[in-house]
Write a structure and sequence with these properties.
- The chain has 2 domains: 2-172, Glycogen Phosphorylase B (Rossmann fold, 3-Layer(aba) Sandwich); 176-361, Rossmann fold, CATH 3.40.50.
- Helices cover 41% and strands 16% of the residues.
- The chain is built from 19 helices and 13 strands.
- It starts with a strand and ends in a 15-residue tail after the last helix.
- With 409 residues, it is of the alpha/beta class.
- It is globular.
């Protein structure tokens, strides 16, 4: 199978879409496909990075998408789509939907587009909707993949498209996150954490919709004796400056052990997962229209053996299975506080959920994702859709280390 994959986000830039494009391309290659990646160069020489990947990368001049770049993307798509015979043309994100749609007459290939969540709301402006209709982007020849059941339903509602035409294909977690970690005691010693502390860890960009203040308020609401046993490690780069400063002021006045570690290399994050007791990321609704389409970071923590405290927003319910891999609660201080207390105090529950989290992460391989997306022969690892049929009926060479999912994607 010959696949042309076009993305507006890719390494060295961080972000969930770039991670998706890289990981599904690596997995498809491992399953025997030939993949050609079209990606921006961000104004720098990416030769070393690109040579380390097991698929071909063709860079175009550009950075993160702007609508001013749409004409150049249209010309770019046309030049590549018509350059050779492909079996699949895959627009990995919204900025390439219109360019690929305008190029489909040049190829008999399957036309595939992946929706991730936020861009579904962002394309609801009159001008964008007009352009989508004019080009017939989601016409009968277009196959649509959504990264979660939530995203599938959001897309169906916004564009009034038959649900049968939209396939929910859950994302995967890289084998890297299952890899060897430094010992628990050594990692705790390196960060000055006593062996008897209960360690809660969050990995996310410090931005409004990730809900750090709600987590802090829930932590502060715990009984004093329990609260003083918990160390909260906050990992991730800063988002909005005013928001970050407000959060740090709140932390300074709270009677809680909160440590901001900033952005860390993946190896360090993996080590910290091995030294922590549970993961906590309590996203909140965002009036800007940005949504949590899936929540890949929960799976990365699960691969490290951590159950999660998470809020039931967006597609998180596919990444954290309620009462199986973590505790899924409403985004309220009281509900989050109860969940944190449960995982902090009840070691049996924590162990059961940790085992479930690890099993869920192992089921969600990127090879499974690539096989379902491209109709490639499946690997021996189980398919999440096969594994979750009952649930859905009742209610769905050495590679670089993957980028942790700390962006607003």
């Amino acid at each position: 199978m010959n696949i042309l994959l076009l993305t507006s986000e890719f390494a060295p830039a961080t972000g969930g879409i770039g991670t998706y494009a890289r990981e599904i391309a690596v997995a498809a290659t491992e399953l025997g496909a030939r993949v050609t990646m079209i990606a921006p160069d961000y104004g720098c020489d990416n030769t070393g990075l690109d040579r380390s990947l097991p698929f071909e990368v063709r860079r175009f001049r550009g950075a993160l998408h702007s609508m001013r770049e749409l004409p150049s993307k249209i010309m770019l798509a046309r030049s590549h789509v018509g350059s050779e015979r492909y079996d699949v043309i895959h627009a990995a994100d919204w900025p390439f939907f219109i360019p690929v749609a305008l190029s489909r007459h040049l190829t008999p290939a399957r036309i595939l587009m992946t929706v991730h969540g936020t861009e579904i709301n962002e394309t609801q402006t009159p001008l964008k909707r007009l352009a989508i209709r004019a080009v017939n982007v989601f016409g009968s020849r277009t196959e649509i993949a959504a990264n979660s059941r939530y995203t599938r339903e959001l897309f169906r509602e916004r564009f009034a498209i038959d649900a049968q035409r939209i396939k929910a294909v859950w994302l995967g977690v890289s084998d890297f996150w299952f890899g060897q970690r430094s010992g628990r005691a050594a990692t705790r010693q390196a960060y000055g954490i006593a062996s008897d502390r209960i360690v809660m860890v969050t990995v996310a960009r410090i931005t409004r919709r990730k809900g750090h203040p709600v987590t802090l308020a829930a932590l502060s609401a715990l009984p004093r004796e329990l609260r003083r046993q918990i160390t909260w490690l906050v990992i991730g780069p800063d988002g909005e400056e005013d928001y970050v400063q407000q959060l740090k002021r709140l932390v300074a006045t709270a009677d809680c052990d909160v440590r901001f570690l900033g952005a860390l290399p993946n190896q360090d994050i993996r080590d910290i997962y091995g030294a922590a007791d549970f993961f906590c990321l309590t996203g909140v609704p965002d009036s800007s229209g940005r949504v949590e389409g899936f929540g890949l970071v929960y799976l990365e923590a699960a691969a490290g053996g951590l159950p999660s405290v998470a809020t039931a927003i967006g597609g998180v319910a596919d990444a954290v299975l309620a009462d199986e891999t973590g505790l899924l609660v409403q985004p309220s201080i009281e509900g989050i506080a109860r969940a944190i207390a449960t995982l902090a105090e009840d070691t049996d529950t924590r162990s059961v959920l940790a085992a479930g989290a690890s099993a869920h992460a192992r089921a969600l391989s990127w090879q499974r994702c690539a096989a379902e997306t491209y109709h490639l022969p499946r690997s021996s690892r189980p398919s999440v859709e096969t594994a979750s049929d009952a649930e859905m009926a009742a209610t769905q060479p050495q590679q670089p280390h993957p980028t942790p999912h700390v962006s607003a994607a």
